[in-house]
Amino acid sequence: MTIHPLDPGSADPPFEQLRRQVASRAASGDLAAGTRLPTVRALAEQLGVAAGTVARAYKELEADGVLVTEGRRGTFVRSSGAATSGDARAAATTYAAEARRLGLGLDEATRLLEEAWRR
Fold it and tell me: Which is deepest, 7, 83, 85, 98, by most CB within 10 Å?
């Protein structure tokens, strides 16, 4: 299992680049369900980043339901409920409808989404 190098010149922090790469590759099937990811230390060494950077990305991916950690067995791409672009479109449609129902404008709805995204 290979993780592509991170871009040190990117405006996005390394943990976010890693989180986005793994989530995107899992959703597309490039990282198949059940794929075992490297340990935090091994991946940190491979990418040339701090172990905390990888740990944060893994933690956020677990919270998002993309990864599952099984103790000493390791961290794996979750096998069920893999998201697709159709899932994201459905979630966006639901959010847009709810925001309109609440009387929010696009700018306010976008601001709220960006705020939630950063949490």
Answer: 83
